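SAMPLE LOG
Freezer: B-3
Tube label: C17
Construct: single chain, 116 aa
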Amino acid sequence: VQLVESGGGSVQAGGSLRLTCTASGTIFGVNTMGWYRQAPGKQRELVASVTGVESTKYADSVKGRFTISGGNTNNTVSLQMSSLEPEDTAVYYCNAHVGYNLRDYWGQGTQVTVSS
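STRUCTURE (predicted):
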């Protein structure tokens, strides 16, 4: 089973992008899905996550600008990114976390580039 991401690209500061991630098959026991990002020379960091379909968490740097939706009902998660800043430039990775065996699934990553 793979997580397939789409929607990355290049945009000017202030613009918007939407990322979508879908599991290629059935993953049993997913309780949290989320988006992480990794900029050059930096550690991978959590951007946003959703547990179930309603309990969301955001990094302070994206609160009010990014919105996560979807969740474990159909193992699809989207990230609507608005008011993008050059600091948001990174490779974005989708994650699905299985609660009963603590296994993590990762997407291949999608590049988001924001120019000033």
